[in-house]
Design brief:
Order of helices and strands of chain A: HHHHEHEHHHEHEHHHHEHEHHHEHEH
Helix content of chain A: 55-70%
Strand order of the largest sheet of chain B: 3-2-1-4-5
Distance between the termini of chain A: 49 Å
Distance between the termini of chain B: 12 Å
Strand content of chain A: 5-15%
Number of strands of chain B: 10
Order of helices and strands of chain B: EEEHEEHEEEHHHHEHEH
Radius of gyration of chain B: 19 Å
Number of domains of chain A: 1
Strand content of chain B: 15-25%
Radius of gyration of chain A: 21 Å
CATH topology of one domain in chain B: Nucleotidyltransferase, domain 5
CATH superfamily of one domain in chain B: ATPase, nucleotide binding domain
Number of helices of chain A: 19
Helix content of chain B: 25-40%
Shape of chain B: globular
Strand order of the largest sheet of chain A: 2-1-3-4
Largest interface: A-B, 11 and 15 residues
Largest sheet of chain A: 4 strands, parallel
CATH class of one domain in chain B: Alpha Beta
Number of strands of chain A: 8
Oligomer: heterodimer
Chain lengths: ~425, ~260
């Protein structure tokens, strides 16, 4: 920890303030995670990472920077990691999931901004998160109005590059996104000083595809009647995937998937038979936001799938591999990323189809559709989500919440009532 | 043998005991107070005085304070209990239950004797009993008096749904010399409109609508709600006990 303190000081962090976060996190993690029984052994790696979340990975990143590599911080699943990796850069997630950072964000943002944006801005401006200090460049995308304006504020403090994400999915929008990826690649080349070649990009595409496949394997086991891994643990794997080295992420996820597959064969479940199966849909749950999963899984139900950016949207669909030119590769990347169904698109019927499909694939008893307070896109889309699920005969509960614990008991009543309603 | 249902609400704690034939043999309501531990003990003592011994008679707790009843055999949420209680009280298997509680309002759609869907306003006191209480206090009347006064008022409205801002509005109305009747009318109107907008997603006209919770005694509230929802709302003198009655029916299912 002494090394960490030196590192945090060198990063220009507000160490005293950061200490307050360091003090609460282990208790929260212990209460939410370590209290679970019969967890897969493969979770040991993730527990280890969380135990020193602002130490281990940040020090790796700083080592890499000493060797001349650049770190790109991203906020969204639309920014193509492949391009950065092909230029020998490193990608790290930057999403804030703690109420701890919200107050700092509210100093410069309207209160009616979603907590994810407030936390991300607060983490940077209050200097209380090493990842926000380490990133050499932030890469934003125009997914929502709140983020667009927040980038202008962050841009005063850190180099900021913005990708202009189309908001419709016509052929010309896919072409346009390919062009945006190409422009981004040029920026990455300039910033890293490394050339992106067809070979390097093919390698990077393969690496990220392997990561996606590994995460998908874990999710595949959650479709079984036997539930080999809790929703909380699966969520943690996804949350850490945004920060980890992609090859190591794939390796660890594959190990965990091996274990989960074996558990399914052996009939080892972390929940009693008959536990109600819930799918969560909606806005992302950035680390350490474990609030809803914890309430659900201590109210007699299990989360078996997340239709979220910290869930299926992160790994579904692969990029076509082994193409012969950069332009073809950029197009292949665009096609894959444009298959992601964020509520910022209109129309967004494909997301509704995804939700109904996933609800069936994961054999869920009910769906909880959640949106972060002030995310009007997901909030508005709820109407269509509910209607489609009603038509499919799948019960759905809508929840709007933020990172604060103040509504935890009200949420517990609603969620318990929903689980009782499922019979 | 009796079957005990206890509903610890934010304002009042309701206790019901039913017999094997589901007839109510004991009912009690008391303020929840500031200590749920004391309240839980008081309830136990009063039950014992009436011959219902905890540990012998099965007991189910519900309401926001359900976890504070250490001697309950089981806890069930107020949504499920209000559904079961309303079925007992009103006899319908398909209906909409509107429960105006102390600190939240619930709309429960009941189909085939089960909860099919529910909507809760649990983050803000607009449209709840608490809203009524605060406004009654500002007017120096009791909540019952306020609803009685409202029956003789008209043509005044409060535009703010927020209790704090609405209180300022009421104070302005008082300053303007508006009659108590008219202000009371505006207060009830605000509650009824809020509840109605919350119920906007349910088809009210196709099925019976029943009112439960602490305001069930007020004929004026019932009438105003009926008018706003466009359908005749039913109530019952025991409807404040709906949650506790529901809990007691679940206590019947507990095997000793």
């Amino acid at each position: 920890m002494a090394d960490n303190l030196q590192m945090w000081t060198d990063l220009g962090m507000d160490v005293d303030k950061h200490d307050a976060l360091c003090q609460v996190l282990p208790t929260a993690f212990g209460d939410v995670y370590l209290s679970q029984e019969n967890r897969p052994e493969g979770m040991g790696f993730y527990d280890f990472v969380v135990a020193d979340i602002h130490g281990i990975r940040p020090s790796e990143l700083i080592e890499a920077q000493k060797n001349g590599r650049k770190v790109f911080g991203t906020f969204c699943v639309y920014v193509p990691d492949e391009v950065v990796i092909a230029a020998d850069g490193i990608v790290s997630g930057l999403c804030g999931g703690s109420q701890f950072w919200v107050e700092g964000g509210e100093k410069v943002l309207p209160k009616s901004t979603c907590p994810l944006i407030k936390a991300s801005v607060g983490a940077r401006l209050d200097r209380t998160c090493p990842f926000f200090r380490i990133a050499d460049m932030y890469v934003g995308e125009t997914t929502c109005d709140g983020k667009k304006k927040a980038y202008e504020i962050l841009g005063e403090d850190v180099p900021m590059y913005i990708m202009d994400l189309p908001q419709m999915k016509r052929e010309k929008d896919i072409v346009k996104w390919a062009e945006e990826i190409k422009d981004f690649a040029a920026k990455v080349e300039e910033f890293t000083g490394n050339k992106i070649t067809v070979e390097k990009l093919n390698e990077a595409i393969h690496t990220i595809n392997e990561k996606r496949k590994a995460l998908a394997r874990i999710y595949e086991t959650r479709k079984s009647d036997v539930i080999p891994i809790s929703g909380k643990d699966a969520l943690l794997v996804m949350q850490i995937a945004f920060f980890d080295d992609p090859a190591r992420c794939a390796e660890m996820a594959n190990k965990l998937a091996d274990e989960c597959e074996q558990r399914v064969k052996d009939g080892v479940s972390v929940f009693p038979a008959g536990t109600k199966r819930i799918m969560l849909t909606g806005t992302p749950l950035a680390i350490p936001n474990w609030k809803l999963h914890h309430i659900i899984e201590t109210s007699g139900a299990a989360v078996v799938c997340e239709e979220m950016c910290t869930g299926t949207r992160y790994f579904e669909n692969l990029v076509e591999e082994d193409l012969g030119s950069l332009d073809e590769q950029y197009m292949a990347l665009s096609k894959r990323y444009m298959k992601n169904n964020c509520a910022c698109f209109t129309p967004n019927d494909a997301r509704i189809d995804d939700i109904v499909r996933l609800a069936k694939e994961y054999n869920v008893d009910g769906v909880i559709d959640t949106n972060l307070k002030f995310c009007c896109l997901y909030d508005t889309e709820r109407r269509n989500v509910e209607r489609a699920l009603n038509e499919a005969g799948i019960p759905v509960l809508g929840i709007e919440t933020d990172y604060a614990d103040s509504d935890a008991e009200q949420l517990r009543t609603r969620i318990e009532a929903f689980v009782e309603m499922l019979g | 043998m009796g079957f005990i249902g206890i509903d610890i609400g934010s304002t009042c704690a309701k206790t019901i005991v039913i017999d094997e034939n589901s007839a109510i043999v004991y009912k009690d309501v008391c303020p929840t107070g500031w200590s749920s531990v004391d309240t839980a003990n008081d309830i136990r003592v009063r039950l014992a005085d009436a011959g219902h011994v905890i540990g012998e008679d099965p007991c189910v707790a519900t309401g926001y304070g359900r976890v504070s009843i250490p001697y309950a055999d089981k806890t069930i949420t107020e949504i499920t209990c209000h559904c079961a209680g309303a079925i007992e009280l009103f006899g319908y298997r398909d209906m909409v239950v509107v429960d105006i509680g102390g600190q939240d309002t619930k709309i429960i759609e009941v189909a085939g004797g089960m909860v099919r869907n529910f909507w809760m306003n649990d983050k803000c006191s607009a449209g709840t009993g608490r809203f009524l209480e605060v406004m009654a206090n500002t007017l120096s009347v009791s909540p019952d008096q306020l609803t009685a006064l409202a029956a003789n008022g008209s043509d005044t409205s409060i535009s703010s749904m927020c209790t704090v801002f609405a209180e300022s509005e009421v104070i302005s109305l008082i300053g303007r010399g508006e009659s108590k009747e008219n202000i009371a009318f505006a207060v009830v109107d605000s509650i009824v409109r809020k509840v109605s907008s919350q119920a906007g997603r349910v088809n009210m006209s196709a099925q019976p609508v029943v009112l439960t919770g602490g305001l069930c005694d007020s004929e004026y509230i019932r009438k105003a709600l009926s008018k706003e929802l466009g359908t005749e709302v039913e109530t019952n003198p025991d409807a404040r006990y709906a949650g506790a009655i529901g809990a007691a029916t679940f206590a019947k299912k507990i095997k000793r």
